[in-house]
Request: fold
Amino acid sequence: MSIQSVIEFHTRKLSYCAPDGFFFALHIRFALPLLHHQTYPDGWTTLYTEQAFALRDPIIAWGFGQEGTQRWSEIDIPDPFDILGQAKQFDMNYGFAVSTGPINSRSIASASRPDREFTDDEMIEFSKIIQQLHVATEPPKSLTDAQVAALRLIADGDRHAAAAAKLGISESALKARLSAARNSLLARTTAEAIQRARDYRLL
Reply:
């Protein structure tokens, strides 16, 4: 099973655990996650983005300060912008947070529902899936020399044909190396793979 298939499988499982909405941000490094996904209401997502709530969110702050799970109602970090209060306008009345992984590659997730607190068992099940996603999407410690060489030439501005000629390989072989690098870095495009390789000090 490919990494993308694993991600999709676990994301579907999360949808069953939290049908009213959830989000995850995996392997947050240099303030950006390797991968993120959310199913919260569109109105909340728009407000959250426009107001840059991620920089002030008590759930995110808790996630960087703790590991484990915690109900929103039990998080005692100040919320001067009333982010959790504003979430209730979108029926996000109850929820909990999950935090796992080392501080330099932390994964943070959360789920909400309108009607009641999540049970301990529900939180445990959701948390297990997040931990599985965290492990499955662990960024590579290195790329192959061939992948690095291919990415570096494209990063320097070479087109596929020129890069392949410099490496003495066919264009299809070059594309295969770039595809393998994208898969390793969970990148959708070669440009994104180049940026992630630089961020992880692999390029």
The chain has nine helices and five strands. Residues 120-136 form the longest helix (17 residues). The two ends are 27 Å apart (CA to CA). The first strand starts at residue 22 and ends at 29.
